[in-house]
Amino acid sequence: MSRTPTADEPFLGLRGGPGACRLSARGFTLPVLLLLLALMSGLVLSLWRSAITREAMAGADADRLQARLAAHALIREAQQDILASTPDTRHTPGPAGSTQAFFPPDMAVWPTLMARLQGQGALPCQQGICLALPSVDTPVSSWASRLSGAASPGQFVSRAAGADPGVALRYPGTAAYWVEVMPFDSTTTTLSSQIDVTPGMPPLVYRITSYVQGRLPGTQVVQQVLWLANSQAPDRAHAPRVLQWREWLS
Prior knowledge:
alpha+beta; six-stranded mixed sheet; 4 helices
């Protein structure tokens, strides 16, 4: 038999009534908020990691681009080194008994250069002037191992004007170049049939290789050109010509 509560008794509500629904909703809200907070935290963390990754990739791309530009500039410096008109020990054989390497002006002194560089042993190079070097399968690491016989940026081209303050900015890491001096003949390059020269004229062809280490340890660039300093082609004003260009990245 049911009893009606008196005025002094509190009304507790019926089981399963509105009061119970409100308590159940309050208990369900907290887990939902915690779940949303966890999802938002995971999203923010993912975006942060993605931003860090993109920044690192952008920095690596910028460093590689700077290293490639520096390698190209170093090849131009090597060409200036070859064409320097000032007679010095780098462009003349020197007196009897001299041992320095030099850029031979003609084939008459080529045997002298060959004898001096062959005496260097396995690395026939001296201050960036080399005989033909063997081809390698891993160019970047191999050129890095030949730094002892290389020329440094500004070592010869900028010496008359003193130290170039831009060298340190252009080459933040290790940088060097080599010039392989080789007699020119029809077997020097597969493009020889397209070169407007008389066989044996010009007498020499130069293979210039530049190596640049960027700011980041993993940034290494090697560029190489096969270059005629004088094409002996009057219709082209005897202009120098690039016969081949190659690049390796690491």
